[in-house]
């Protein structure tokens, strides 16, 4: 069973703005407990 991936023009600033305005949550995949890793820094920033 295959599911086609939706296409989106990621160069369109209006579309990107709309996505971020409508987004209520953000997932960080591969969040690290290591404070020197970028994923940890991003998570701490988002929580602050």
Count of helical segments?
2
Number of beta-strand segments: 0
- The percentage of residues in β strands lies in under 5%
Quaternary organisation of the protein chains: single chain
Average pLDDT number: 88
Q: Any low-confidence stretches, pLDDT <50, length ≥5?
A: none
Counting structural domains, the number is: 1
Order of helices and strands: HH
Radius of gyration: 15 Å
What percentage of residues falls in helices of 4 or more residues? 40-55%
Please give the alpha-carbon distance between the first and last residues: 42 Å
Cα shape: extended
The major β-sheet equals:
none
Helix/sheet category: mainly alpha
Which key features would you list for this structure?
48 residues, mainly alpha, 2 helices, 42% helix
Can you describe this structure?
The chain is mainly alpha-helical and 48 residues long. The protein is built from 2 helices and no strands. The chain has one domain (13-47). The relative contact order is 0.11. Helix content is 42%, strand content 0%. It starts with 12 loop residues before the first helix and ends with a helix. It has helices spanning 13-22, 38-47. The mean pLDDT is 88.
Briefly say what this structure is.
The chain has 48 residues and is mainly alpha-helical. 42% of the residues lie in helices and 0% in strands.
Question: Would you spell out the secondary-structure blueprint of this structure?
Answer:
Elements lengths: L12 H10 L15 H10 L1
